[in-house]
Structure formats: C-alpha cells, structure tokens
Amino acid sequence: MESTSFIRFLFLILAAVVLLLFTRSWIHLPSPAADELDLLDCNRFSSWCTSKNRIQTKQTTPSSSSSTTRSASSSSAAVRDHSDDVPRHPLDPLTLREISAARSILLSQPPFSSSPSSVIFHTLTLSEPDKSSVEAWSKGSPLPARRASVVARFKGESYALTVDLASGALTTLPIPASGFPTMTIEDMSSSTWAPLSDAAFNSTVLARGVRLSDVACLPISPGWYGEKEEGRRLIKVQCYSAEGTANFYMRPIEGLTVLLDMDTKEVVSISEQGRGIPIPKSAGTDYRYEAVAGFNDDPPRLGLKPISIEQPAGPSFEVEEGGHMVRWAGWEFHLKADARAGVVVSRVRARDPDTGEWRGVMHKGFVSELFVPYMDPTDAWYFKTYMDAGEYGFGLQAMPLVPLNDCPRNAHYMDGVFAAADGRPYVRENMVCIFERYAGDIAWRHSESPITGMDQIREARPKVTLMARMAASVANYDYIIDWEFQTDGLIRVKVGLSGILMVKGTPFSHLNQFPQNEDMYGTILSENVIGVIHDHYITFHLDLDVDGANNSFVKVRMAREDANPGESPRTSYIKATRQVAKTEKDAQIKMKLYEPSEFHVINPSKTTRVGNPVGYKVVPAATAASLLDHDDPPQRRGAFTNNQIWVTPYNESEEWAGGLFVYQSKGEDTLAVWSERDRAIENRDIVLWYTLGFHHIPCQEDYPIMPTVSASFDLKPVNFFESNPILSAPPNFEKDLPVCVAAAASA
C-alpha cells in the first residue's frame, strides 16, 4: 500500500510539471522571467488565473513574450492600468472593482456563505439594462442600476443569478433542464493532467513509445449521446507527443481516449483503439518563425517588402477615454470584449448626411454560437462536435493580439476584464483592436468615354474602412472575427479560420497503401497523418433596430416572369416580389442558388421621400449548410444551423443559439426550439440570426498550419438613405498624403 501511494505521489508531481508545460503551449502563456515562476501569482495574459494562481485586483506588469512579440509590443500596444476604471455607459463591462464586489456579495449570502471556497464561477459579467433604459440614457445622465449576471456551481448544483451591486440583492433565475455551464479555464487545464495520476493510462502511453514528460493533452467536450452520460460533468481527454516540436497537434497518440469525471478528476474509463498506429514524425511540423526560418537569419520575404499604413496626423476615429464608445466617419457604436461571445458590438448608429441625425441600425450584434462537427464516426472521433462559445467560452480563448501582425501599426487596443473560476478579476490585454484600413479599394468611381465628348470626367474615391477585430485560439483552431464599418453605411462581418488542423494518426504513409474500400474520413496530409473532414458554423445574433425597435422581415423573392407574346422581343425577365413575414416560420430561410431572394429588415412606419420603407438587408456571401441527419445527436444540439436565417421576437433570455447551458445538453433549449412557437414578428422588436458556414476538406497546403480562409456577410442599407451617402466624399490629392521615408534611408 505504501509503495502504491508513493508511486501515485510521483505521478502527481510529474503531472504538475506536464500541466505547466502543456498550459504554456495550449493557452500561449508568455515565457516568464526566472523570478516569475511562482505559480501563486500569474500575469495579465493568463487565462488560467483561478483560486490557486490568481491575479489580484491591483494588476501586475506582464512578463515578456518571445523576442518577436516583445519588439512589436514596444512600438505599438501600451500596457493599461484598469484598477481605477469606472463605467461610463450603461453597456460598459463590469470593472475590476465591480467584479470583486459581485463576488463578495454572492459569497456572503446563503447558500454560498456556508462554504465560499466551494463556489465555482462559470460566468460573472454585466447583466445589461433593458433596452428601453439604454435607449433613453444620454451622456452625463446617471447610469441605470448596475447588476452582475452570475452562473455558478456550488456543491454539484448549477445556479443562475443576478446580483444588484448597489443593494446587494440576489435574484435567482431558472436554469435549463439539461446541460452544464461553460467550462472554466481551470476545468480545462486540470482535466488535461488528471489522467497522468492513473497508472493504467501511463502504462498505455509508455507502451505507445511516448515518454510521460512529452505528453500534451487536450480537453474535449463529449457532446450528448444518451442517458448513460447524464448526471455528472464528463470530459474526454486525448493526448499527443510534444517531442521535437511545438506543434504537438500533428503527433496524436491515436485512438487513446480517457473519459474523466470533470468534478472529481476520476478516470471513468480508458479506450485504446490505436495500437499499431505510429506517432507521426515531428520533422516539418513546427511553424514558429525561429524554427522555420532561423531566428537570426535574414530569410527572404517571398520577394515582398514591408507595408505599413502611417497616420502622422493620428487616426480619424475616436475611442472615448477609458470607455468603449467608438466614433468614426458617420458611425457611432459601443464595443466590448465578452468571455462567451468574444466581442460585442452594440448601439450602432449612422449619421444621416442630409439631416445630421443619428439613426439606429443595430442594438446588438455578436457571435452567439459556433458548431464544429467532425465527420468521423469511429470510437475516438464521433464525439468531436464542438460548440466553442457555449462549451469553451469564445472570449476566454482569445489571446492577446500580436501588434504589427494581427493588427497594423495604426491600431488601437482594448482589453478584456473577466472573472476567473474563484470569481476574482483578471485582465486579458490587447484582446480587441480597432484600426482604419485602406487596401487600394475603390469606394465609387466613374469615367466618361471619349464618345460622349466628356472624357475629361474621371471621378474616383478611395475606400477607407474601420475594422474592429478579435481572434480566439480554441486549442488548435484560430478564429478571426472582423466587424468592418464602411463610409457608405455597410457593415461587413467576416470570419477567418487559421491555426492547426485536428488530425488523426494512420498506419499508412502514402495514399496507395489505403485499402480500396476503407473510408479515410479525410485527406492524407503527411506520413501517418490524416486531416479529418469537418464543418464550421458561426451563428450571429443580430438585434437590428432600423430607425427604431419595431421592424419587419421582408423576403424579396426573385423569379422568372414570362413576357406576353408579341409585347417584346424578349421572352422572359426577372420580377421581384416582396413577402412580409408574419410569424417566425415565415422567416426560416434555407439558401437556394436557383431560387434567389434578398432579405430585408425594414421599419414599416418610416419611409423615404419617395415612399420606400427604410431598411437594411442581409447579404450572404459564400456559406455552407449542414448535411447531417436532423436526428443525429450532435445536429439536434446544433439545430440552430438547420437554417441560414431565423427571425425571432426580441427576448432578453434568448441570446445563445445553443442554449444557456450547452455543455452535455440534449438540444432542448436552442434557437430551433424557441422558433417552433411560431410567434408573431411583423412590426415587432425582432432579432435576426445568421449562420455562416464552411465545409472543410483538408489539403496538404493546410499542413502544418493553415493559411487563413475567410467568409463574410454584409448588413447593407436598402433605402435607408435618400441617396448615395458618400457622394460628397473627397478624393485623395498628392499634397494631402504623408511622405514616408524608410528608417534606414533617413538615418
């Protein structure tokens, strides 16, 4: 017995070391200096600040990162002190002091006061005031009551509450019938090292030829596949060999899956289906600059010379000092980081060029959920159907943006202020950036031909836009979310995918070795490596309030109309027919290439001078639709992707398309379920939901790291303005542009 206990103790010590190594690579902790290795204090980059290693309300100076990041940071993003922050707008996120106050209030009241250390905070964020209060508020007026929204677990039970920061009152809210709250960073990181305390797991890893010191593991949400998985929080853990590379994702210990009780860290079962599958090679997998090009070398830049946008007179946009209001070129909006959604854009208003009036466009827009199902039904893969916002926290996975590379030199940065699992606040620096973008695009142009006799007319205007950007690194995958505001009233929302593929090991090193009738479930990318086919669906919550809250959804259907015989040499033309959606089911849209439509959100009570209702339209670009069986368990949970567009009446409790509690949920609290009520939506306060999709069949160019692939959609004014709103935009003249001289040339 003593011998067994001693062995377990050694495994725990080893596990702690592996946890440190893994956490640094998975959540991108910067390299600490020698005197910063005390895990009882962590810096502002840390996403794993918890009850065991937390940041105090008074922030410390972050430690340095790699040489590349350090030199970039020194010239761009400044460190900001948030200890004295105060809210300036009703939608401003909770400050450090407010998070601490909400935590103290909750822990002082029953049942939580009986054992404060047993309370785990899964969400601690602003409970936003009702829309009417926000709309009625004006700068300089007192803020509406500040409340915190809390989702917590206490002694095995989940709670949803609001905390009134002034009165200290707690209000308990209903919770969903199934599922659990979003994982905390501590849930994820502690689950990755827990298997190392299990002797059977360690023996299996060693038998596969991997040293325990090289093991790196990932926490994988299990989805829901029946009653046997109910009643406790479970997580699956799969592991990799980090020997010889930072890109351990390319070296899976294929077929080894640990089922873990996330609360007790007990190993429930171990599945080993990968015996005989080698660990793929490490050569050629590292993607770091110093590994690929040689850190001290001067490698070629593909023949490219550096490009930088310079603004000697400063940017054209303004960010309220210490606040979140952004103003630029006829736009005004509120911008903030969010632990679940990533970034939230609110109170979007456009200035009318004719009247100077600020007019409403959108009350709130954000990523509501992501659904990423992998297309491999085998034992080690069938459950990989991630919901990155509701299970992992899209904002929790956001890493500090890299100045000069993620964002240009002229960018302004915003931080995120979040609560750790113990309810204490920490800061995620440089989580969002804002910058003006000019890529040589044209806002509008026209030149006359000599045949008109007016060939002296040559008019063109440059297109400059404003970008608000965040990036989340959800383990292997990186998502880039851009909100791009154009001077003509258009908002372009773009999603970029990069990062590293989730791959499976195979005994085969060449395509010709695979049995003819064996399904690979993907593409062979390198020796013993298969990139598995998968989808990405990103569902946006778009609370459009076009010139007011009460709007209608109009489907403008385009169809061929046959010309009457003898009336025209033409035999057909296209006719547009407008159909106003009365109820939710009228507005459930599946895109069809040969049955095209436009999708308008209009204000029926406001018209232009010639009688058209003012509005905005959703303009889809490339997208994809789910092909899964609607009764497939993951698709039941991800049923919000069954349509590309949904429209629902506004309900403050309906924000998350996959439900409030997504983790291990059955799919009973989703957008698809809410919309089955078929509620009235005509001339009401409505929310439009748009799902942008990708089918991804991996290819060798995605190995070992993927070039970014993007898709987007537009929110475009349709009869919102009386005419082209940028008609009076000035052209560029040489005399107005800065003359930039390279540093080497000016020395």
TrEMBL record:
Its EC number is 1.4.3.-. Keywords: Copper, Disulfide bond, Metal-binding, Oxidoreductase, TPQ. The keyword 4Fe-4S does not apply. The modification 2',4',5'-topaquinone is found at Y477. Residues 181-280 form the Copper amine oxidase N3-terminal domain. Topaquinone (TPQ) is generated by copper-dependent autoxidation of a specific tyrosyl residue. Its cofactor is Cu cation. Residues 79-91 have a biased composition (Basic and acidic residues). InterPro entries: Cu_Am_Ox_Cu-bd, Cu_amine_oxidase, Cu_amine_oxidase_C, Cu_amine_oxidase_C_sf, Cu_amine_oxidase_N-reg, Cu_amine_oxidase_N2, Cu_amine_oxidase_N3. The keyword Oxidoreductase applies. GO terms for molecular function: copper ion binding; primary methylamine oxidase activity; quinone binding. Residues 308-726 form the Copper amine oxidase catalytic domain. Residues 60-78 have a biased composition (Low complexity). Contains 1 topaquinone per subunit. Residues 56-91 are annotated as: Disordered. The active site is at D388, Y477. Residues 89-171 form the Copper amine oxidase N2-terminal domain. One of its GO terms (biological process) is amine metabolic process. Belongs to the copper/topaquinone oxidase family. This is Amine oxidase. It comes from Musa acuminata subsp. malaccensis.
